[in-house]
Amino acid sequence: MSSVGGSATWLTVGQAAKHVGVAERTVRRWADDGRLTAYSTPGGHRRFRLVDIEAFLESSRVSSPDEERKSQVLVIDDDERRRASVAYALEADGCDVREAARAKDVFDAVDAAAPDVILMNVAVDGIDGIELLCRLRDAHGLEAVSVVMFTGAEAEGGASKARLAPPQTARLVEAARRVLGAAPAPAA
Q1: What's the CATH number for 72-180?
Q2: What global pTM score does this model have?
């Protein structure tokens, strides 16, 4: 952060993103869309006034500070019925659920709201789930977000070294609840 003549505090794209809690890509998109005022340096770099960022945050606020924040869940699955039933059950629990059927939809969903937990099919839209997850974490810095991966395909040789949640709706919902702290882990 820097201040010119003590009158304004200016932030770089990275500082603005950190202040708001989103990826730099998201801040750039907001500026490109005209939602957040940006200024250019003589070298062509973007700078943001802290007062503009605070005003943007205040105008974007939907709920009152007294309202409890809803848990954000992202369901990534190309099976529409399973995705819809998981979303329905979690929304009934009070979660805000975003859905993505294709890899390209995942980034838009995360731009809209950073998830607290991701329920993800191992293979979506022809891309390996681990690769998609790595790209997602690189682009949005979601290293701390819990991920529950599942697959509808039987693992080669029967047993897999990774513990994959079965694709039944009830088990996926229960896994999300445990991660979110809404339900205790089942007794062994």
Answers
A1: 3.40.50.2300
A2: 0.57
